[in-house]
Design goal:
Blueprint (H helix, E strand, L loop, with lengths): L2 E6 L6 H14 L4 E5 L5 H11 L8 H25 L3 E5 L2 H11 L4 H12 L6 E6 L2 H14 L13 H17 L4 E5 L4 H12 L5 H7 L2
Parallel strand pairs: 1-3, 1-4, 2-3, 4-5
Helix pairs in contact: 1-8, 2-3, 3-5, 4-5, 4-7
């Protein structure tokens, strides 16, 4: 089996950039890597992503939102993640089940037990071996995210960025609570600095948490 790493954090924390940098390092060292994201990661789930992140769909109810995430995840796991792990590859995923607990559970204040049950159903037992939580103050993250959205020429995926600061504070607190409850799986990386500083912290945090072969490939 391969090794499954997820990247989590509030909007604009820098997780997507850090995932890309780790992917490049692993591939340069000869590792077979699949980089993917949620919601999305495959054609059917990408269509659900378009619905979930479009600010025009602000009328989506919290429960409908939760069920769409679960449906997208079920497709994604069976089509992309599980096959890659079976091939023995390293899978890097930008958001996974913890995002649903943080956003729909702590942010939307839906029942965490119900979310856990849906996550278990959607993943068919596939769980990350390691989760990198890139943490930064909400104000810093939102400023970065909104700046990125203004600069984009593609779809404006901003439905969550337009939520209140209080919502995002609940999400951040939810992530930190998840990390505190599962220290054997989570590593927390300070993402408030620039990209290079965050990458240095991430590599240091991962040095003893990756499989031996991967550590050797990175020179850790």
């Amino acid at each position: 089996m391969g090794f499954f790493i997820t990247f989590e954090g509030v909007e604009g924390c820098g997780k997507t950039t850090q995932l890309r940098l780790l992917k490049e390092r692993l591939q340069a060292a000869g590792e077979k890597v699949v980089a993917t994201r949620e919601p999305g990661g495959c054609p059917i789930a990408d269509q659900m992503r378009a619905i979930l992140l479009d600010a025009k769909n602000s009328a989506i109810t919290p429960l409908a939102e939760l069920l769409l995430y679960a449906a997208a995840r079920a497709q994604h796991v069976q089509e992309v993640i599980a096959p890659a792990l079976k091939r023995g590859e390293t899978v890097l995923c930008d958001r996974f089940t913890d995002a649903t607990l943080a956003y729909q559970g702590h942010g939307r204040e839906l029942d965490l037990t119900v979310i856990g049950q849906l996550n278990g159903l959607a993943t068919a037992g596939v769980q990350p071996a390691l989760t990198v939580l890139i943490d930064c103050p909400v104000e810093i993250g939102l400023a970065r995210a909104l700046s990125r959205i203004e600069a984009t020429t593609g779809a404006r995926e901003e439905r969550f960025e337009l939520e209140s600061v209080r919502f995002h504070e609940r999400v951040r607190a939810g992530y930190l609570a998840l990390a505190a409850a599962q220290p054997e799986r989570f590593v927390i990386v300070d993402g408030s600095g620039d990209v290079a500083a965050t990458e240095k912290r991430m590599l240091a945090a991962l040095a003893k948490r990756l499989p031996a072969a991967t550590q050797a490939a990175l020179g850790a």
